[in-house]
Specification:
The complex is a heterodimer. By secondary structure, chain A is α+β, with helices and mostly antiparallel strands. Chain A has seven helices and ten strands. Classes of the chains: A alpha+beta, B mainly alpha. Chains A and B meet through helix 1, helix 3 and helix 4 of A and strand 1, strand 2, helix 5, helix 6 and helix 9 of B.
């Protein structure tokens, strides 16, 4: 079949070429053509609307203010973070303990945006230098927040946090200036220390996949929490596991009945990494990190 | 460049933004000669010549090379991550190749508009990718790299099969919609401060799903798009909606790499237009339309090479501007 320049009804990919006649003057379209054009216009409007509807559905989870996600260290404030994240997952790739995950469509504009599920795998700074920040190409994770961007109340750290693992290094700090959250003893009644109980065995059971760096085992390689059983008189797993100097300690408190109790107390250097939440042997965790929370005295 | 070609160059940019290709008003003298010669040819001889060419076996050279490239690039992302080779880290929205930042132009634009703060790495990565795709032809990204394109190609095959069985019909959409959607998504990013487009971008979603094997819900959206393309509109997303395609199309305006049409041997049978994802760029192959004896195909062309494979007379060929003169 030879293709020439005569218009064909139903040729999918071309608009009707202008009919023959005086140049410039457009003869009126046939009834059929008009109908076709109108149908095409309606389809375009309909489908265009559909695509926007799908795109704008991204607002829904934001509007409903769903559960706040714990972001990787150095993340900008939520709104700026969602705007600047390019959803490439380079932070996911560099994390040595695979703490970072990418969100799905239900998270609205957060689709493909990284978050940390601390209970499953917290950031334990095994990488020493906060690799995810170094990997981020857009500054969504950053050491140096631009001056004009607001700082959440209580997010600013008094001093750069000291990483216990490299306390003896010439540069012992994590270069962070803001915290991503704060740990809280959200269920004091279930806390083993509060009950005066010890703990023996694998902190999260034999099937738990989470990893942690134990300086006593290997300085450079995190191992499975399940491969590192504990045996303590009084449970202080959150204090033992915390990677930040001075962020948490076991303190003596007085119960309402006047008896002395021990309880984990979170201090100002807490960066909100979530290691305490991951290691807590009670189910559900007695201590949890509150994403985006600031320090309150 | 001849005057007629200059005029066509501008027209092809308009066509990319959604205008319908028009009959040329200015045709070079040498092209008119060829057009006339073709009219005078002996009909029987012409038919015989066509038959002889028809008998030639179909080849899939460029398609195979392209599929291999597309699969290789996407696999490189996957393998880099899973075996921790650190050669090509990230996803198609932004990545690092052997340490060099590479950032998808459309994604970078969305982030810049939404965030309104541009850091050096973002700028470097965008610049590198811009240079790369100016050289390689802009929309070459679509057919040679984009994983959604690959899926859509199979959906298209299925669609064409169903069309042939008369089970479905292709219902075309107005191509200007893509330009409108590009503008709206850019404005939405600027005004709302969210990278709105990224939440539905099948390129990003499929790329991340491949590499990080997550995003099940997002993949359902991609699946819905594919089903829509199979049953209703042929290649709907790539043809009528995708702002990434338009961004790269603009980059490809000045690209030296393109497909070139040679008028001389063409029988104007239109096989190329049947396989083409963007047949409006091939209007020049219609009898009497070529404005010169050699016509470069416009910037909306994805340089997929399907027409090059299909053309029985070799009238469509890949070409690098200036190189033929040099050699």
């Amino acid at each position: 079949m030879s293709e020439d320049d005569t218009p064909k009804v139903g040729a999918a990919d071309t608009a009707p070429p202008p009919p023959q006649g005086a140049p410039g003057a457009k003869p009126p379209l046939s009834k059929e053509r008009r109908l076709q054009a109108r149908r095409r216009f309606m389809r375009t409007i309909l489908l265009g609307g559909g695509v926007f509807g799908a795109a704008l559905s991204g607002f829904l989870p934001v509007a409903y203010a769903q559960k706040k996600r714990l972001r990787p260290p150095g993340a900008l404030d939520e709104k700026d973070f969602l705007a600047s994240c390019i959803k490439c997952g380079q932070c996911v790739q560099v994390c040595p303990v695979n703490a970072i995950k990418l969100a799905d469509l239900a998270d609205g504009f957060g689709v493909g945006v990284p978050y940390i599920e601390a209970r499953e795998q917290a950031c334990d700074f095994s990488c020493d230098a906060v690799q995810c920040i170094l990997a981020c190409p857009t500054g969504a994770l950053t050491y140096k927040k631009p001056a004009y961007m607001s700082v959440r109340p209580g997010a600013k750290l008094a001093e750069k946090p000291i990483l216990l693992a490299k306390e003896k290094d010439p540069e012992p700090t994590l270069n962070l200036t803001e915290r991503i959250g704060v740990a809280r003893l959200t269920r004091p009644e279930s806390c083993l220390a509060m009950q005066g109980k010890g703990f023996k065995g694998q902190a999260r059971g034999p099937d738990f996949k989470g990893e942690l760096r134990y300086m006593s085992v290997d300085r450079w390689r995190p191992i499975k929490v399940a491969d590192h059983p504990y045996d303590v008189e009084l449970c202080d797993l959150c204090v033992q596991a915390c990677p930040i100097k001075g962020a948490i300690s076991l303190e003596t408190v007085f119960a309402p009945d006047g008896s002395q109790r021990k309880t984990p107390v979170v201090h100002e250097p807490c960066v909100g990494c979530g290691v305490c939440e991951m290691i807590c042997p009670t189910e559900p965790a007695s201590i949890e990190v509150i994403p985006g929370e600031g320090w309150r005295t | 460049m001849s005057n007629a070609l200059k005029r066509r160059f501008v027209e092809q940019i308009k066509v990319m933004f959604g205008a319908e290709p028009q009959k040329p008003t200015l045709i070079e003298e040498r092209a008119i000669e060829v057009h006339q010669l073709k009219r005078m040819t002996n009909k029987a001889e012409l038919a015989a010549a066509k038959e002889a060419h028809r008998a030639r076996e179909k080849n899939h050279k460029w398609r195979n090379i392209r599929w291999a490239t597309l699969i290789f690039v996407n696999l490189l992302f996957v393998v880099s991550y899973h075996f921790d080779i650190q050669l090509l880290e990230g996803a198609l929205t932004a990545s690092r190749f052997a340490g060099f930042h590479l950032i998808d132009l459309n994604s970078a634009l969305q982030v810049m508009l939404a965030h309104k703060h541009i850091i050096t790495n973002l700028l470097i990565g965008t610049g590198t990718v811009l240079a790369l795709w100016i050289l390689l032809g802009g929309r070459t990204f679509c057919s040679w790299v984009c994983p959604y394109h690959f899926l859509a190609e199979w959906a298209e095959k299925l669609h064409l099969f169903l069309v042939q069985k008369k089970l479905v019909t292709d219902t075309p959409i107005d191509r200007r919609w893509r330009t409108v959607s590009w503008v709206i998504f850019a404005l939405l990013a600027l005004i709302t401060g969210y990278t709105v487009y990224e939440s539905i971008s099948p390129t990003g979603i499929v790329s991340r799903a491949l590499i990080y094997s997550g995003g099940v819900l997002a993949m359902l959206w991609v699946l819905a798009l594919l089903v829509f393309e199979v049953f209703f509109v042929r290649r709907a997303w790539c043809r009528y909606a995708c702002p990434i395609g338009l961004t790269y199309g603009v980059v490809g305006i000045v690209s030296p790499l393109r497909v070139k049409y040679t008028l001389q041997g063409c029988f104007h049978e239109g096989d190329c237009r049947k396989v083409c994802l963007v047949p409006h760029v091939l209007d020049t192959v219609i009898k009497g339309r070529a404005v010169d004896t050699e016509v470069p195909i416009g910037p909306d062309c994805t340089r997929c090479g399907l027409c090059v494979d299909t053309c029985p007379t070799g009238s469509l060929k890949f070409d690098i501007k200036g190189l033929s003169k040099l050699m």
